[in-house]
Structures are given as C-alpha cells and as structure tokens.
Amino acid sequence: MKLEFLGAAHEVTGSCHYVQMGQVNLLVDCGMEQGADLYENQEIPVNTAEIDYILITHAHIDHSGLLPLLYSHGFRGKVYATRATVELCNIMLKDSAHIQMFEAEWKNRKAKRAGKPLVEPMYTMEDAEGVLEHFIPCEYGEIINICPEVTIRFTDAGHLLGSASIEIWGTEDGKQVKLAFSGDIGHGNKPLIRNPQYLREADYVIMESTYGDRLHQEPPDYAVELAKVCQETFARGGNLVIPAFSVGRTQEMLYFFRKIKSEGLLPEFPDFEVYIDSPLAVEATSIFHKNVRECFDKEALELVRKGKNPIKFPGLKVAVTSDQSRMINFIEKPIVIISASGMCEAGRIRHHLKHNLWRKDSTILFVGYQVPGTLGNLLLNGAKEVRLFGESIEVCAQIKNLAGISGHADQQHLLEWVKAFGETPKRVFVVHGEDTVCDTFAALVEKETKIPASAPYSGDVYDLETNVCIAQGSRVRVAPKKKDGRVVSNVFARLLAAGERLLSVIRRLEGRPNKELGKFADQINSLCDKWDD
Question: Is there a single domain that holds both residue 350 and residue 454?
C-alpha cells in the first residue's frame, strides 16, 4: 500500500494524491494549478488508462479541473463525489472547457497575425462531457464498497456546497489501513451551508493548511461591512466590483445583499442593483436551491421554511449572454457587479476590471483567498498598473478586502479538526498550504497532538504498512516563469496517451478466445500499416 503526493504539496492549488492498494490505482482529487508554480508537480505514476477510481472532495477547479484532461489521455474509470459536487462539476468542468477553447481561439487569432505556431486547448468540451459520464453521486455518511479492496465514506467538510472529507478503508494481503483526507475545511458559521463535521479515527490523516499560520479576526457582521463599502462607493458615484468564485462565494454575497435590502442597512441607496455577470454563477445558484435539505444550515433552512429565498432580493439582475455582460459597463448609475473568476485570472471579471480600475470613484472588493502570482493577489498587494487584453491599465480605484470572510478554517479550527482524531493516527500529512506554512503547521500539529506530522513534497511516496517515506520528490524550487495561460499544445500527448490506453486494453484481454485476439491484432496491424508510409 502506497501513498504518493502529486499536487498541492508545499503549494495551495492543484490538489492530487495517488493511492495504490494492491492492484487498485486511485486518485483523491485531480485539480488544476492556479498562479505561479513553486515546485514541479510529479506525473501520475501509472498509465492514465490504468487509474481505476478518482474521489473528489469538492467541485472547485483546483480540486477537479484536470479531470477532462485525464479523460482525453485515456481515463475511463469511475469518479465518486457527493451528489451536490457531481451537479456542480457538471457546470464547472464544462465552463472550464469553454474557457480553454475560448483562450485557444483568442491566442490563435493573434498567432496567425504574427506567423506563430497555433496552440490547442488543454481539453475540449467533448472531454468534459466525456468524463462527466463517469461520475457516481454519493450521499453524506454512506459507506460505499467501490471494490473488494476499497471502501469509502464522504463527510461534510463545510467549505462549499457538497464539499467533503473522505475516509478510505484499504485492504491489501489481508491488512487494512484507513486514510482520512480532509479536503478543504470550512471555518464554520458560514452563511447557507453547514459547519464542518469531525472525523474520529484514521491510521493516516492528509489535511489542508491554507490558513495554518494565521487566525481569522472575530467575524464582523458582513452585511453591515458590505453596506458600508457600498455607501462609500455609491456616494462617490462609482461601481462596486466584486471578483468572486461563481460557486460558493457568489451565493454568500447574495445572502448578505439580501440582508442589506431586507434590514434597510443602506437607506441612502435603497434601490441599488446587483448584477451577477457569470452564466456559471447563475447555474450554480439554481443548484444551491436544489440541495437545500442536504447542505443548508439551520438559519438558511428557517428562511426557506418561511417562504423566503435566502439569496434573492429586489434589484438582483443576471447577465448570461455576452451582450448582456457588455451592456453592464454602459449603465450610468452606481451598481454592484459580481463576476468571476475570483482571482481575476480569467472570465468576465477582467472586462469589468478594465472598465473600472482606472476610475477613482470605483471600488474593487476582494472576498476570498488570492493565490500568489494571480492578478487578484497583485492588486491586493498594491499594484499601480496592470495589463489587461494587451493594454496597460492604471490602478486608480479603491482596492479593498473584506477581512475575515473565507471558505477555509484558520489555524485554531484546523487544530480542532485534527485533535478530534485523538492519538489514533500514525502520521498527519500537511498539504494545500503555502511553502513555509506547510512546514510550520506540521510542526505545530506534532507539538499539539504528539502525532508525527510531515509536510510532503510532490513526488514523496510513503509505504502505508511501515509508515516510511520510500521515495523523495524534488525539493528544488522552479525558477519563476510566465505560464502560457491554460493553453498548451498537447495533440501529440493525446496520441501517446491513446497508445498507452491501447496497451492497457491489450493486457486485460489475456485469456480471451484466440479468434477474438487474432481479429483485434489484425485490426491494430491494419491501422499501423496505414500510418507506416
């Protein structure tokens, strides 16, 4: 039994962990990296076509975003996730594919004019739709035997609608080991969704550490704080632009704006309008309504019981089409614009930044974690000028951060979560944190719990029977480099992956009737003859 760390090791995004139980190959999460690479992520150690199962903790792209790429490279196994996560991935992976294809098209228009080589999208809509057919929805608390060697259970992690910690019972040669993957842990007392639930026992714990080096401030009344920012911005005659994740954070913002409206917290501008400019956010909001009973907290459920929609109010507008999005920037009165992506790396938010960053009367309000290297992080750290769509834009708008609002547990809540295990774990692995945070939080966990704790790097492999690191990944930080967005030329890689998948299929055919094997061999040889010339 082996556990190998592939992504989000000494980094915050790109979560991916490989588990081998006998002949079973399993991944926990398969996320896309966002922002600059600090360490080179290791490749999955087996042929993509030989991955049997993937377990997804939640739908955010840094945990699920590379699933279509795996499909394009031959993955045809099963993907297990909670029911809400399956529904959210259905829109988020398609949206990601749309972005990949749109960016490739945009880059290729420029490449043609400059006489440069064309690029291919990382994956296509066909790949996203293909992998979605392999999803299997699960219920919280349900014990699921996915094969004789592996049993799993999802428990509410309180981070996002459908988010989960995952318990895995694995058996090899008659010996059983239990792993507990935290996923992203919520800090509790969030609007709409429930608080995280604790796990009680495991041999090995793999936990996030996003805010493992800090404590959240005593949470303010966010509706009051938000109303204050609106009042100041509207009084100047500007727009309030909020970069927000389409799933989770956008719905929380709607909850607070409903409260501002219903409690009259902005009497100077009672009829202000809020525009959601994100087709994904609109679809995600409808999914929130469908999962009320399973995922909503008591306060939200009470509003629903009284016939009140927790995230709907007078003055709420949506922009779905591109024309509707463009028209927002021609509205002359002050408005609120909520748009994605939350880190300003892609999507419609970049157009709204282009139209508002240069305005002294507007405010850009950040309401979530900004990964170092992203445009959002640069703006929060005082950038005076940024480039958008090939133009330099002077930053004159007010840049603010709504302190304390986060989907992640802080140091105190992370410690409470891991202490719930008592002294049963053999080791705690600390992942999903900035470089130094992983090390410092691992040391703190060991000090507070007396359980050995490690902060693995990408490529580190542990033997789960002996609790020993049997292979080390690279500790060398990669030189800073500008990424080619989300677009890479990977057609040849897809061809190689198709060949590897073919080999995987051939190996599984051993023992079939000779007539069938001979026919298949003739088909392969005929195909090879066609391309040998």
Answer: no
